[in-house]
Structure formats: C-alpha cells, structure tokens
Specification:
By secondary structure, this protein is α/β, with parallel strands linked by helices. It has one domain (32-297): TIM Barrel (Alpha-Beta Barrel), CATH 3.20.20.370. It contains 11 helices and 11 strands. Strand 6 (154-155), helix 6 (166-172) and strand 7 form a beta-alpha-beta unit. Helix 2 runs parallel beside helix 10 and helix 8 (226-243) packs parallel to helix 10 (261-273). It is globular. The mean pLDDT is 94. The structure holds zinc ion (2 copies). One zinc ion (ZN) binds next to loops.
Length: 300
C-alpha cells in the first residue's frame, strides 16, 4: 500500500518522502533495508573561518597554522587514505583557501573527487546581505572553476547558516544541490518549481568539529578519543544502514587529518564497506541520481 507523506502529501512506496525528506511510517520502516550510501565530505576551511570571525587572526601565526595545516599537510594524508580504500569523496573549499593552495585543489580534483563551493572567506550567508551573498557565490565559483576547469554543482554553507535567500541565489546560478540543512536522513527537495534544489542533509553528530576541536580561547577544552568518535559514528551508520538512508560525514582536514584520526577514519571506512549493500559516492552523484529518480516528486 502506498504511503502518504503527512508533511507534504507525496504518495508512494518509500521509507523517506523524496519531496520533503519526512520519514514515512510502515511496520518495516526501520528494518530490513540493509543498504546505505556513504558520502565522505571534507570542508577544507584552512584558517579562513578563524579569519572571518576575527580578522586579527591573519596576524597571529600560531592560530593561523592551526588551520593552514589542513590544506598543506592533512589533505595529502587524507587523499592517500581515500586512494588506499579506493573510495571517492567530496571536498568543499572556500575561494580564499583555493587561491592560496591551487595545487591542493588540482590534486583533489585529479584524484576524481568532487570540488564544491564553501564561500570565499568562509562567510556564513546569514551574516551577509543578499548582494554580498550573491557576490561571494560568484567569486567562489569563478576561483574553483578557474583551477579545475569544471563547473561547481554543489554548495555547503560555511557554519551551516543559510540565509532566507540562499537557495534562490544558488538555483539562479545553476547549482544542482545544497548540503547545509538538517531536515532528514536522506536527500530531499528544497524550494519549488524552477528554483527547486536537492538537499543532501548533514548533522552536527556526524561532524568532526564538535568532538575534536580544542580551542581554549573559545572555551573549548575537551578532545574526544578517536575510539569514542569511531563508535559514535559506527552506531549512526548501523542505524542508517538498517533504514536504507544516507550516511553523510562532514570532516575538516585540519581536524580529522591529525595523527590518530586519519587511522580512525580508515578503520571506519573498512567497517562500513564490510557491510552488505554499502556504496561510497560523491555528493554530486547522489544528488544527480536523486534528481533524476525523483523528478516527479519535485515541488511545483
Ligand atoms: Zn513529504
Ligand atoms: Zn567550513
């Protein structure tokens, strides 16, 4: 019997409503799927986020080196780990970081990974005017395309803080998807009609930042053991695998790329690939497949 979405009235046979992402109840909503698509994503912030929050950081070499370790030292270790496991990933890179590390961007793209948009100087859109936001979108795309020769299809908002007009501005510029919202465990449509985009949802629990960042000046004084994070992420993966959802992990090279943590990520990848029905995909491929499979569910 087809399900009817209680939220948007889409009707069909599925665990998640493809229009709005709501979970559709049935006696077996939560068992028997035993399949999962894994999206490994890396936000290559470098020191851009710190400088955006406090421009004085540009003249504080110690603080800067904390972030700059990401694109310079950590990315090569991460690329080696991904190559060893033979899995693709998506990298979201602020234009400011790309300008300073063009060889890193090229190396990521040459390895077959996706390059996505992540602002210019890591500006959360909610802090910008619509004009400024449009300018940052254009500037970031121009820089990334200038390096890779490829158009940019996906956007991840710095700090996961979209504004009211972000989705509209993205749609006008031909973006295929956004990955900054927390509304589901599977892709869904956001916006409507011509400006509808695919959303690939994220969440703080599947992000390395809350577990690992030690920043005494910001009052952050705890660092989790890699084993703690590994078991937390495995538990989330196991449940999403059972439900037939998408496991989207958000990481930052300057955080996950430190010794002891890359090895944890490699163990997690081996664990996930040992399970039946698990596919590793780039975000853009998941979103393109969703858009073509579920074009009929696109909100009008
Ligand atoms: Zn719905
Ligand atoms: Zn970021």
């Amino acid at each position: 019997m087809p399900q009817v979405c209680p939220h948007c009235h889409w009707s069909g046979d599925r665990r998640f409503c493809p229009a709005c992402g709501a979970a559709l109840w049935s006696p077996d909503t939560d068992k028997g799927a035993a399949e999962c698509t894994v999206v490994l994503s890396f936000d290559v912030d470098g020191s851009s986020g710190m400088i955006n929050r406090d421009p004085r950081v540009e003249h504080r070499p110690s603080a800067r080196s904390f972030g700059d370790y990401g694109p310079t030292v950590a990315v090569p270790h991460i690329l080696t780990a991904l190559a060893r496991a033979n899995v693709p990933a998506s990298f979201y890179i602020p234009g400011w970081v790309a300008e300073r590390n063009p060889a890193t961007v090229e190396r990521i793209a040459t390895a077959g990974h996706e390059i996505g948009h992540h602002g210019y100087l890591h500006e959360p859109p909610a802090t910008l005017s619509a004009e400024e936001e449009a300018e940052v979108l254009d500037q970031g795309s121009e820089i990334l395309t200038g390096i890779t020769g490829q158009p940019v299809a996906g956007y991840r908002s710095p700090s996961w803080e979209l504004s009211d007009v972000s989705l509209q501005l993205m749609a006008e510029r031909g973006f295929r998807y956004d990955s900054s919202l927390m509304g589901s465990d599977a892709p869904y449509w956001v916006g409507a009609g011509e400006s509808a985009l695919v959303e690939l949802p994220i969440h703080w629990a599947l992000d390395d930042y809350p577990y690992f960042v030690f920043a005494p000046t910001d009052g952050r004084r705890l660092q989790a053991a890699p084993e703690h994070v590994e078991s937390t992420w495995k538990a989330a993966f196991d449940e999403l695998h059972r439900r037939g959802a998408i496991f989207t992990l958000t990481m930052h090279p300057y955080i996950i790329g430190r010794p002891g943590r890359v090895a944890m990520l490699e163990r997690l990848i081996q664990y996930m690939r040992s399970k039946p029905g698990v596919t590793f995909s780039r975000a853009v491929d998941v979103c393109n497949a969703f858009a073509s499979d579920w074009s009929s569910a696109k909100p009008g």
